[in-house]
């Protein structure tokens, strides 16, 4: 069966959120995204460019643990890599905004 094709990010994002209902899965995404930011900042400060090799390991590692163990679904990044990357950061930004409001 051919996966649904989304014509815009706005159309894709509700699907993305539906694939992240488990709170542990979302937390693992947030942890991975936070570590990504730390790695990037540290790399820019120290100019140890080899550290960037950790980016896919950290980002996919935390996210895939969440999907395969807790959410029990197939990560959207397999079918929609660019929309999924964008959606990860939108979801992360929404989480940060919620934390600031508390």
From TrEMBL:
Coiled coil spans: none
Assigned keywords, A-Z: Membrane, Transmembrane, Transmembrane helix
Signal peptide: none
Pfam families, per database record: Mpo1-like
UniProt key word Cell membrane: no
Stored InterPro entries: Mpo1-like
Transmembrane segments annotated in the record for this chain: 28-45, 52-70
Domain of life: Bacteria
Keyword Transmembrane helix among UniProt keywords: yes
Protein name as catalogued: Transmembrane protein
